[in-house]
Design goal:
Elements lengths: L2 E6 L3 E3 L11 H5 L3 E8 L2 E2 L2 H15 L6 H15 L4 E8 L9 E7 L5 H7 L1 E7 L18 H12 L4 E5 L12 E6 L2 E5 L9 H9 L3 E5 L4 H4 L3 E6 L3 E8 L2 E2 L4 H15 L1
Parallel strand pairs: 7-8, 7-13, 10-11
Antiparallel strand pairs: 1-2, 1-6, 3-4, 3-5, 5-6, 9-10, 9-12, 12-13, 13-14
Bound molecules: pyridoxal-5'-phosphate.
């Protein structure tokens, strides 16, 4: 994703080629920062307030200073305008700043959309299930979107190594959780299923939007990954990738169905409406 625009708290628009983070920023030293990825449709970041609220919640859990929500709204607007693309990816970062100083930094980055999203949606993605660890302890930061995403990226790389497109994390006891950057859904007859937030997964903004938009009944809960192999359809959701249908899980074929396509269309209508 090439960077189209960069806005920095207290400075405004900065040349994207200019370094703006110090070498001893804790975001770099320890991966201790909060971030958000937002999709921009027709020049408008979709569900920006929800993303900023989640950024604020992540920051609080990590122990960062409170997020200036109106500052982020303004930074986001400036960066998106400057990016000059109606459809783009907006990323927001709230870092603690330099070690030993309490001077946090706010960044808004605008990039192009990944070029292969619609091709992937057209063909459907292959998923593999991978061990994902979750446990209820506040310091494990379950459900927090922090910049410590090396594990998530390693899981995506492992999925590619196994000739798949993406991963689904499964708890040691076989309960399905989420993808490295997505939430997971499947359908059985007239009912959709998705893992419950109480499992310590990220409260996806797209997940919440789909729960509202869905004409299908949705059950949230703790479900075995085994349930997915003979689902009537399976898909993932995220801000950038939207609703992404799967055609395979662990090498076993899964058929495509109407719910994923309907929810994708409903999401687009909501985003562009
Ligand atoms: C671990 C994880 N789960 C789910 C999601 C989907 O969240 P959203 O719909 O807010 O993009 C993400 C997004 O990056 C994520 O990182």
């Amino acid at each position: 994703m090439s960077l189209l625009a960069l806005a920095v708290g207290g400075r405004g628009i900065v040349d994207p080629d200019e370094p703006v983070v110090h070498a001893d920023d804790e975001a770099l030293l320890r991966g201790r920062a909060a971030f958000e990825t937002v999709r921009v449709y027709g020049g408008r970041p979709f569900k920006l307030d929800e993303h900023i609220a989640r950024l604020a919640a992540s920051a609080a859990r990590i122990g960062l200073p409170p997020v200036g929500e109106s500052e982020f709204r303004a930074l986001a607007r400036t960066a998106v305008e400057h990016g000059g693309r109606p459809d783009a990816v907006l990323r927001l970062y709230w870092t603690p700043g330099r070690e030993g100083e309490a001077r946090p930094a706010a960044l808004a980055l605008v990039s192009e959309l990944p070029p292969d999203l619609e091709e992937r949606r057209g063909r459907g993605i292959k998923l593999v299930s991978l061990l994902g660890l979750r446990a209820e302890a506040p310091w494990l930061l379950d459900g927090v979107k922090s910049t410590s995403y090396a594990v998530n990226m390693a899981a995506e790389a492992e999925a590619r190594r196994r000739l798949a497109d993406d991963a689904v994390f499964v708890r040691e006891d076989g309960v399905v959780l989420e993808g490295p950057v997505t939430n997971v859904w499947w359908r059985r007859e007239r009912t959709l299923f998705t893992p419950a937030l109480e499992l310590g997964i990220l409260a996806g903004v797209t997940r919440a939007a789909l729960l509202e938009l869905s004409p299908w009944a949705v059950e949230e809960g703790a479900f075995a990954c085994d349930d997915l192999y003979d689902a009537d359809e399976l898909f993932t959701s995220s801000s950038v990738r939207e609703v992404m249908p799967a055609v395979e899980l662990d090498g076993l074929p899964i058929s495509r169905g109407p719910a994923g396509d309907e929810l994708q269309a409903a999401l687009r209508r909501a985003a562009l409406g």
